Amino acid sequence: SQTIHQWPATLVQPVGSPLSLECTVEGTSNPNLYWYRQAAGRGLQLLFYSVGIGQISSEVPQNLSASRPQDRQFILSSKKLLLSDSGFYLCAWSDPFGITEAFFGQGTRLTVV
Amino acid sequence: QKEVEQDPGPLSVPEGAIVSLNCTYSNSAFQYFMWYRQYSRKGPELLMYTYSSGNKEDGRFTAQVDKSSKYISLFIRDSQPSDSATYLCASYLWGSNYKLTFGKGTLLTVNP
Q1: Any chain B CB within 8 A of the CB of A56?
Q2: How many Å apart are CA A40 and CA A63, to the nearest integer?
Q3: Labelling B11: which of A15, A105, B19, B85 has CA 20 to 30 A away?
């Protein structure tokens, strides 16, 4: 069966510090991968999605970047965090070949102080 | 205009009540419609999805889509305290690499 791992669950970082959040998927090949951010009162916002290794599409201009170094690994990064980067970050995957659900990780709650 | 609009609530009901959660969408090209449930501090999980217009039932949950009015509904019968969560509607355009467009979510509390 497929599983998605996302860590850490909680993170407190000072303004100006770097960020690296990692997501890995098991039990499937060539998944579509996604990073969402969920801010209070603003719903789920798609940040990046990837349909293959090294292929990253950005949905929203921001202080963040994403990389997919391996088929089932998706990384969200920032060189210098801003206060506005605080939020709940969710990784998700979907099967690219059919109409199936998007499976979400458990999320990382990031607080920038 | 947001592509998917959802009343954030909060909505509080007694146990056993019928709950109606609703969304509207603006993009008439959307073809697939989903409802996700999200417990506090957890990732969303898919409850149901429907294609085009019509109803879909799964146990106590019924999803309904009316494409003519661009209206999405989720009904929960015999609501339970364990149903207390945030419910997110989402729409999807075929061929868009599964880029879901979410509503803001409705916080539901079912009181025992």
Answers
A1: no
A2: 19
A3: A105
Number of other residues whose CB lies within 10 A of the CB of residue A38: 23
Q: What is the DSSP-derived secondary structure letter of residue A59?
A: S
> Are residues B99 and A104, on separate chains, in Cβ contact within 8 Å?
no
* A/B interface, count of CB pairs below 8 Å: 55
Indicate the range of A32-36, A53-57, B7-11, B36-40 predicted with least confidence. B7-11
Q: How far apart are CA B22 and CA B26, in angstroms?
A: 14
End-to-end CA distance of chain B: 37
pLDDT digits (tens, 9 = 90+) for B46-69: 998 888 788 999 999 999 999 889
Mean pLDDT across A87-110 = 85
Q: Give the tokens for residue A61.
A: 């201009």
Q: Taking CB atoms and an 8 Å limit, are A109 and B32 in contact across chains?
A: no
